Amino acid sequence: xxxxxxxxxxxxxxxxxxxxxxxxxxxxxxxxxxxxxxxxxxxxxxxxxxxxxxxxxxxxxxxxxxxxxxxxxxxxxxxxxxxxxxxxxxxxxxxxxxxxxxxxxxxxxxxxxxxxxxxxxxxxxxxxxxxxxxxxxxxxxxxxxxxxxxxxxxxxxxxxxxxxxxxxxxxxxxxxxxxxxxxxxxxxxxxxxxxxxxxxxxxxxxxxxxxxxxxxxxxxxxxxxxxxxxxxxxxxxxxxxxxxxxxxxxxxxxx
Length: 255
What we know:
Elements: H1 12-19, H2 24-27, H3 31-52, H4 57-67, H5 76-91, H6 100-124, H7 142-176, H8 181-199, H9 203-207, H10 214-234, H11 236-254
């Protein structure tokens, strides 16, 4: 006669935590860590934008898009980024925890991943220049303004082109149409890279009223493809970090 065990089964959250992989490469990709990584620069940028205004197109265009749905709050684009990352974290059933060493590692890794952008810039021979306004508005000096706008550009442009656009293309091709995931990822990376580069052109450049800037277009195309691949491999937070680190470097050498 066998003896029944009266041991209580482990709670679901305990078994899930035990099965969840560990390690820096995994932890640094978690949506929650991406959110914690961008939270301070996002807040600093938003305070700066509220006080002194901003020239960034990405948050403006996000606000215009949301306005079609009747949403007009000033901070809604920033709130949308926060909500999307929280929803991702929730639906992936990831653990809720703060790990400062992981965030420090993400910062260091972002600087390392920025270095190939220097090689691309050298290859395309595009002069590095911050987009400082001719008439300096009141507030921080040119370098601080460019750094803050560079942080905002990294956060918002990576959200639109990598997290949303590349993620959406990958979902449609791989999950809905059931193409091979590797092929779908390559298509997503290059489609969003082309749109990312075109997004930075002026109306006159797009319509042929002024000469097409092949150098800057090529650099942004290469950079967009590179950042798209980085997003697929390392997630949103580190991709934002690499993009923002590049913008800070450009501000440093050109202002």
